[in-house]
């Protein structure tokens, strides 16, 4: 069955190789209507999350954001399938990374960096496009899939243009072998829900008590590395611009909470400005805060 699932995925990817982008967005519009009206994928959860995050908005405004979110989600799903067969030139044209002098200075000095991002618009293409346009060796942290054939294929595809991938359990070893001769950017999608709420950093985010992973801050504090945020912006359908926002550059005076706080504030600002671009279907607030865990704002 696993082999059959893998072959089915490869067949779908092959079909999408022939489908032009205008047709993809026609299909995406249809999928949006299907998800919103016919098969309301996690709609109750999405509406609930939006109402908690934006209590000042009316029911009409919440529904409008919800519909736009489904359009964003549909675009991401179909663009991800198309992305398996995009060429280098097509990726560079459609996924532009901002030129940043500070990042280049760090590279020239042999300084590695922590690069955070979030589930904003099409984060999937970033796994392939970043290494084509950034001097640092891009190294993404990933979680191994249960499906061995698909897992192997995903790793090969995401790394086909130079991006390195490392499992979370191997990150510590990677960080202990930092070299000025080979500076890298460790990319972490840091807005996911920690599996263990008793080992998380708890703070207020979008009007709710929210848990964040310690990982980003742990690596920055231990190795005194600067931290940036890749803000993914949609210029138009199928075209993205990634702006680099610096969260931490003064690594000599870092203290607990600085990195997570800066990440939280940056993400909340973006989500408040462009709520339809974030992944509201994720059960981000599934676990309540344990009584023994303090809120750190």
Q: How many strands, what sense, and barrel or not for the largest sheet? A: 7 strands, mixed
C-alpha end-to-end distance: 48 Å
Report the C-alpha radius of gyration, rounded. Answer: 19 Å
Secondary structure class reads alpha/beta
Shape: globular
Range of helix content = 40-55%
Strands, total number: 9
The main sheet orders its strands as 1-9-8-2-5-3-4
Q: How many helices?
A: 11
| Beta strand % | 15-25%
What would a concise description of this structure say?
With 297 residues, the protein is an alpha/beta fold.
Describe the protein:
With 297 residues, the protein is of the alpha/beta class. Helix content is 45%, strand content 18%. The chain has a seven-stranded mixed beta sheet, sandwiched between helices. α2 (21-38) crosses α4 (59-83). The longest helix has 25 residues, at 59-83. The mean pLDDT is 95.
Task: List key phrases describing it.
11 helices; two-stranded antiparallel ribbon; alpha/beta; 7-stranded mixed sheet; 297 residues
List the helices and strands and how they pair.
Elements: H1 2-18, H2 21-38, H3 43-53, H4 59-83, H5 88-94, E1 95-97, H6 101-108, E2 113-117, H7 126-133, E3 137-142, H8 148-158, E4 164-167, H9 171-175, E5 184-189, E6 201-205, E7 208-212, H10 215-223, E8 227-236, E9 239-248, H11 258-273
């Amino acid at each position: 069955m696993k082999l059959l699932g893998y072959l089915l995925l490869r067949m779908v990817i092959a079909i999408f190789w022939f489908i032009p982008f205008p047709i993809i967005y026609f299909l995406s519009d249809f999928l949006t209507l299907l998800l919103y009206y016919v098969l309301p994928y996690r709609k109750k959860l999405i509406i609930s999350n939006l109402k908690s995050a934006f209590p000042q908005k009316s029911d009409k405004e919440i529904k409008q954001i919800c519909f736009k979110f489904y359009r964003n989600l549909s675009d991401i799903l179909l663009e991800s399938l198309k992305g398996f067969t995009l060429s280098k030139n097509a990726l560079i044209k459609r996924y532009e990374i901002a030129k940043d002098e500070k990042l280049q200075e760090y590279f020239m000095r042999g300084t590695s960096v922590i690069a955070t991002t979030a589930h904003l618009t099409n984060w999937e293409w970033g796994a392939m496009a970043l290494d084509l346009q950034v001097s640092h060796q891009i190294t993404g942290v990933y979680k191994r899939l249960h499906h061995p054939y698909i897992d192997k294929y995903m790793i090969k595809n995401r790394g086909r243009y130079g991006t390195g991938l490392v499992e979370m359990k191997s990150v510590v070893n990677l960080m202990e072998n930092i070299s000025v001769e080979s500076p890298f950017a460790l990319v972490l999608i840091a807005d996911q829900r920690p599996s263990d709420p008793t080992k998380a950093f708890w703070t207020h985010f979008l009007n709710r008590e929210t848990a964040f992973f310690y990982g980003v801050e742990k690596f920055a504090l231990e190795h005194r590395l600067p931290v940036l945020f890749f803000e993914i912006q949609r210029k138009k359908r199928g075209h993205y611009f990634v702006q680099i926002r610096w969260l931490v550059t003064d690594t000599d005076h870092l203290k607990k909470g600085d990195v997570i706080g800066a990440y939280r504030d940056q993400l909340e600002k973006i989500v408040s400005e462009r709520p339809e671009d974030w992944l509201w279907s994720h059960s981000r607030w599934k676990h309540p805060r344990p009584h023994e865990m303090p809120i750190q704002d």
